Amino acid sequence: FGNMTSTFLSFLPKLLGAALVLIVGYVVAKIVRDLLTLLLRRVKVDELQAKAGIAPSATTSSFSTIIANIVYVLIWIPIIIAALEILDINAISEPAIAMLNSILSMLPRLFVAAVLVIIGVYIAKMVGSLVSNLLSGIGINNLYGKLGMNKSAAAAKHTLSDIIGGIVKFIIGLLFVVEAINVIDLQILNSVGIAIIGYLPFFISAIIILGVGVFLGVWVEGLLTKYTSVSNITAMLAKCIIVFFAVFMTLNQLGISM
Question: CA-to-CA distance for 96 and 83, rounded, in angstroms?
């Protein structure tokens, strides 16, 4: 009993020290979180969220709250490490400290990855809009008229230049996301990123094949209807056959034809 009491009393200062570190850390982290939230709201960070079309709601937090909570968690990590070191319970502290140190060492990579994704989104939007405007300027949308699709509601809503611009935007954004995954340097995610990049050429060529097939089918249907005496059903059947073969060529290019 004497040995147990002595051991407990010798451990008590460590326990009190760890508790004091946690209490002070909680107060500091809470103050920093609240001040940061006010500061971000003053500099109107939440307006960027509204411009992006994801305004705060019952299910969505504001940017200022999200950033402040992330900083709050980041402050807690070294506090917990310090408390565990004070307790000096090797069976608990050593693996926990190793895990938390790994998280801290990963934070810079996560930050760089997040910056890459944000930059990639802006570049993708800019390049996608530029490609769409250039294609529209050279008259690529007139293909709808040549294919007899002027009266189509889909053609009015989604012009060919917008579709191609959207595909370009998607591909550029995807490349930046894959690069961000590589920066994080997690083996599983790296394998996924390599697989995505390797499959991307097949995906692009499949989209081109399908697009050419659809436009060719519509063009043939228009030619048959306008310059021959075949019925509308026969012209539509010719279009369906061309699109049918284009779909199977697309599936074959994607490697899922079976």
Answer: 11
